[in-house]
Each structure stands twice: as structure tokens, then as C-alpha cells.
Amino acid sequence: MATNNLTYHEVAQIKQTRRREAAQQVGASLAGDNLASLHKIGVNLFGVAIREAQDNENDYNTVAIGHVYNKDSQSILLVACKGIKAKPVGTIVAEAKEYFPTLTEGHTMILQNELSVSGGGSDHLHAEMAIVQALYYKLQVSKSQIPSCGAQIACILKGVCPDCSGWLTRHNIPHTWRREHVASSGWTNPLTGAFFKYSGGDLQYNKLFWNGFQVASKIDTMSAKKTIHPNSAKYA
Ligand SMILES: [Zn+2]
User: Fold this and answer.
1) 20, 152, 190, 200: which could join 132 in a potential S-S bond, CB 3.0 to 4.6 Å?
2) Arithmetic mean of pLDDT, 170-181
3) Ligand 1: distance of its center to the CA of 175 in Å?
4) How many angstroms separate the CA atoms of 129 and 165, rounded?
């Protein structure tokens, strides 16, 4: 993309448009049937709480469940709850073991109301993206390894928003069905912490840099985009 003459803000708009254009369901047929299993586990564990939130039109409340295999082909389960209380890890494993027999409590990660690791004020890390962030920063799967570890993400009883779906599609991560409307509260990139939100026809864009290097809210030059990326860890 020719970015030389664009402001940081214009680049953000291009990024958002391209992300949303990429959005599609990357379905289970592409990579086995773990998505259906993940969704069933999610409904059994959280269906009542999610339906209750939906009855109250609380669009914010979301549960997403992700699954990857480690190098020994053992299951790792990531359960991200936003606004909905997670279950004890033993309850989750008991439910999920039927579908993922190698799963243990030690390989189950609960992400309760997880925020972007960049911190900052406008922080709307969607549940699907909390899973991606945990893969990258907690399990230390590199960006290029994320698809090859068999990552799949199910959003429970709710469509994946166009921003998350676009990001997941671009990174070849199968996920459950995509919905049409974007989140009114905004969207945070799970790896860079960049925050996008439309408000009154204007795109608000904050790029929060990592590890306390800088918190930038009003940057208008692409040179500010240069930052040190901390991902030197290896997928172990
Ligand atoms: Zn989303």
C-alpha cells in the first residue's frame, strides 16, 4: 500500500476497510470439525448466561472458545469470557473432555474480561481476539505459527463481528459464523493494541505501543509507526 502521502489516520481507515472486506466465515470444513465441538461445549457451559445477556440486549457480553494443539498433539483450550462469569476449570475440562480427550486442567486457560496487553484507555479486546492475544503472548505461538498449530475459534451463540472475522480470515484461523454488524464499542487489534472506533462519522484510532515505550493517541505521521516488537519468544 502506498502510504507515503497518507496520514496515520488515513492509513487506519484503509486498514479497517481492508480488514472488514476480508471478513468471511472460515468454516470447519476447511480444518476438521473442532468448531462444532467448541460451540457445543460453549453452549453447554454458558448457553444460559449468554441467552440471558442477549435477552437484556447486552451485546458486549461474549464467550469465545479456542482450541490449538501443542507440539505433542495435545489439546489446549482457551476460554475467553467477556462480561460473563467463567466456570471453574474442572467444570470446563469435564465438559470438554468428551470432545478433546487429551485435555487437562493444566492445558486449559481461562481469560476473564481480558484486556489488551497494551493497556490504555479505550480498550475493547473482543473475546475472539483475547484468545489470539493469549496464543501469541502467553503461549508464545508466533504469528506465522498461529495457523499451523490448528487454531480454531468459536464464538458462542453469536456471530463473529466483521473486524474479528476479517482479522481471523487473513490469518487463516477457522471460526464460526460471521455477523453483519460491527461492534459499536470499537475493536482492538490483538497483537498491536491498535484501537479503532467510529464515532459521529469519524474514525477514532489509537495506537498504543508495547511495553511502555510510548502511549500515542495523537500521532499523525507514519514514522511514528516504527516501534520495537517484543515477540522474540518461541512456541515451546
Ligand atoms: Zn469482534
Assistant:
1) 190
2) 90
3) 11
4) 10
- Residue with the bigger pLDDT between 182 and 95: it is 95
Residue 1 lies in a domain: no
* Residue 188 falls inside a structural domain: yes
What pLDDT, on a 0 to 100 scale, did the predictor assign at position 221?
31
The alpha carbon of residue 125 and the mean position of all alpha carbons in its chain are separated, in whole angstroms, by 7
Which residue range(s) make up the domain with 167? Answer: 6-235
Overall number of domains in the chain: 1
Assess if residue 172 is contained within a domain.
Answer: yes
pLDDT tens-digit readout, 15-70:
899 999 988 876 654 455 799 999 999 999 999 999 999 888 777 899 999 999 98
Cell numbers at 213, concatenated: 515505550
| Residue 205 within any structural domain of the chain | yes
72 CA distance to ligand 1 middle (Å) = 31
Distance 128 CA to ligand 1 centre (A): 6
Q: Cα(5) to centroid of ligand 1, in Å?
A: 30
The number of residues making up the chain comes to: 236
Radius of gyration of the chain from its Cα atoms, rounded to whole angstroms? 18
What distance in Å separates the CA atoms of residue 183 and residue 79, rounded to the nearest whole number? Answer: 20
Nine-digit cell string for 64: 469465545
CA–centroid distance, residue 79 to ligand 1 (Å): 15
How far away, in angstroms, is 26 Cα from ligand 1 center? 15
Count CA atoms within 13 Å of residue 106 on its CB side. 3
Burial (Cβ within 10 Å: 0-12, 13-18, ≥19) of residue 114:
buried
